Amino acid sequence: MKRASALWSRAGNSPGRRKGIRVAALAAAGSMALAACSSAAGSESSGGGGDGKAGAGGSAAITITPAADGTAVAVDRKVTVSAGDGELTSVNVRAEGPGELQGSLSGDKGTWMSSDRLAPGVTYTVEARATIEDGETATRRATFTTAEPSKDQTFLGTYNPDKGATVGVAMPVSVTFNKPIHDKAVVERRLKVTSSPAVEGSWSWMKDRDGKDRVDYRPKEYWKSGTDVTLRMSLDGVDAGDGVYGTQNRVVNFRVGAAVTSTVDVVKKTMTVYKQGKKLRTLPISAGKKDFETWNGTMVVLSKVPTIRMNSASVGIFGPEAYDLGEVKWDVQLTPSGTYAHAAPWNEGKFGKVNGSHGCIGMSTADAKWFYDQVHLGDPVTVVNSVDTVAVNNGYGDWNVDWATWQQGSALK
Q: What fold does the segment set 16-28+39-148 form as a domain?
């Protein structure tokens, strides 16, 4: 089934990057009990290399590789910590962004080796503690920086809505990635949405219309007007699988505005518009004709433009049904596949009587201008009594999936 449209695209958000060093607190290490009234204390040393000695009664030279203050360390290197003659009691390796590096101790507790791959372009801090034979302790700290990633090794997420935006009650939080995300769970853990007031919500993964990986977050029900929402993207250094790493840390705040909802009944050929639950107007419309029916289900306003050129070539309609409408006014976009609510003066006489469009919601120029002035990004428009429910990835068709099914789309379920 084909539907009319004009070409539409949205520029991505520019990526951001933040680096830093964060030293994690070490867990307290156990040590052997000393004799009563003893004044002996464990000594500590800091730095890398492995030639440091600690303790008066034995050798506990903690060796850390890669070397302290090393730069451009390859991401395929393993981090190794050795306690010499002693036993390691704690090892912590962290970097801002990717967080803690996982690893394991050898059976004799003399060596720790990382098991996770290093992230590129970040600075790691290593802190290790060991005990020696007489119960004294040694501590060593080192830092090293990994090589910057190449463009092929990084991924970015284009997010919506923009920072500072005021949106409608149906607006999801949406992130589309420019590279395949193989480890969706690890990426999803680094995406967080909070709101005031708090709501029940969930992420759900899908393929965008162009085949890119995309994840949307929506609440169980529409947002309440006045809700403040924050998206936190902590993706810098995160491994999405197949050696592709994130480069973004973002905090995006937006606000939910007035609840403007619209219902289109293709049988009655009307569109009823509500604001904060109160009916404003019922407009006569002309929806899609046979074989070009307007999508059923809930669509979400994607954009508004006062004038746009519409022609059938943009959606591959040729032959007897081809058209070129020229400059069309008061255009409210509902799907990237080409569904709009707009002025359609060429269909004068059909509004409220006959469905005669190629899938758009047409109305008089005066009514289209009024509707254009009422709605904003994120407002829901629900079509009833039509056919073929709009796909979840055709714009923001998120609301056409029941809540249980939506939650199953999370990589953490």
A: Immunoglobulin-like (2.60.40)
**Given the residues 37, 182, 360, 376, the one annotated as active site:** 360
**For the CA atoms of 215, 221, 224, 229, what is the dihedral angle to 10 degrees?**
-20
Catalytic (active site) residue 342: yes
DSSP assignment of 113-173, as one string?
Answer: EE-SPPPTT-EEEEEEEEE-TTS-EEEEEEEEEEPPPPGGGEE-EEEES-TT-EE-TTPPE
CATH superfamily of 260-403: L,D-transpeptidase catalytic domain-like (2.40.440.10)
Active-site hit among 37, 182, 342, 376: 342
One fold for 16-28+39-148 and 260-403:
no
Instruction: Show pLDDT as tens, one digit a residue, over the chain (413 residues).
Output: 434 333 333 333 333 333 332 223 333 333 322 222 222 223 333 333 333 333 333 334 799 999 766 678 988 889 999 998 899 999 999 998 788 999 999 999 999 999 988 888 889 999 999 997 777 889 999 999 999 888 888 999 999 999 999 999 999 999 999 999 999 999 999 999 999 999 999 999 999 999 999 999 999 999 999 999 999 999 988 889 988 999 899 999 999 999 999 999 999 999 999 999 999 999 999 999 999 999 999 999 999 999 998 876 566 666 766 666 779 999 999 999 999 999 999 999 999 999 999 999 999 999 999 999 999 999 999 999 999 999 999 999 999 999 999 999 999 98
Is 37 a catalytic site residue? Answer: no
What CATH architecture applies to the domain 152-257? Sandwich (2.60)
